[in-house]
Every structure is written in C-alpha cells, then in structure tokens.
Amino acid sequence: SSCINAEYGETGLKYKEATHKEACKDLLSNLHNVRAIVNHFSPKIEAWSTANKISTPTPEEVMDIVRSNYDTLTLKLQDGLDHFERYSEVPKEQQFFTNLVRQICKEKRETTTVQIETAAYHKFTTASNIGQI
To answer: Cα(66)–Cα(81) distance, rounded to whole angstroms?
Structure first.
C-alpha cells in the first residue's frame, strides 16, 4: 500500500489502507503549496488564453500572468524548514556502492575465462615479430 491509495476529495483525505498513513499525510502536507500554485494559476492562465483567443500561451506570456497574479497567491508556511540535512559531495551510501562494485568486479574476474587462439597469441608475443604486424 502506498500514498497512491489515498484519495483527496471535498470531504478531505480518506485512506483506503492505513499502512502508510503518516507518510501519506506528510506527503500531502508537503504538496499543499504545489496544489495551491496549480489551483491558483491554472484558471488565470485559462482565462487569459480565452480572452486573448490563444490555445497555448508562450512561456513568456505565462510568466507575465504569474507575475501579475503572484500577489494574490496564498502559500502555507511549512514546518521544519529551519532543519535540513547538509549536502555532502560524498554521500553516506558511497562506501556501500564502492564495496558493491568492487565485489562485482572481483567475482566477474574470478568467473570469466578468456580463450586465446594459440597461433595469434604466439604471433603477438614473440619479439621477432614486433614491427611486422
């Protein structure tokens, strides 16, 4: 079960299964501003398109609509924005993946056999043939 099983309707949030209820609540809370932005600007862009008899406004026109309607947008102040995990060029998972790749390479080397044609090998390895190839 996942957040896909959560429904958002007129009466609020309904859960079909409660397995990931807290994670779903967190996700929906975090997506509040995204929904607010889409719900705020979509009708304004549609109205502008209808008024100007254009089916699809250009990116510049959309930016003009956003700029002219930004002051009426209401966003929710998110909790926990003052706490964050610092970015690291060396993620904590790096050692795990380094060891994993080394192990895979080691196993591949140990299990791979290379068959060399004797005549061709002899031709390339004899000192007298160097420069004749």
So the answer is: 25
In angstroms, rounded to a whole number, what is the distance separating the alpha carbons of residues 124 and 86?
55
Residue 28 CA to residue 5 CA, distance in Å, equals: 12
End-to-end CA distance of the chain: give it in Å, rounded: 65
Distance between alpha carbon 106 and the CA centroid of its chain, in Å? 31
Per-residue pLDDT tens for 1-31? 445 444 555 444 555 555 677 888 888 888 9
CB 56 within 8 A of CB 49: yes
Query: CA 94, CA 102: separation in Å to the nearest integer?
Result: 12
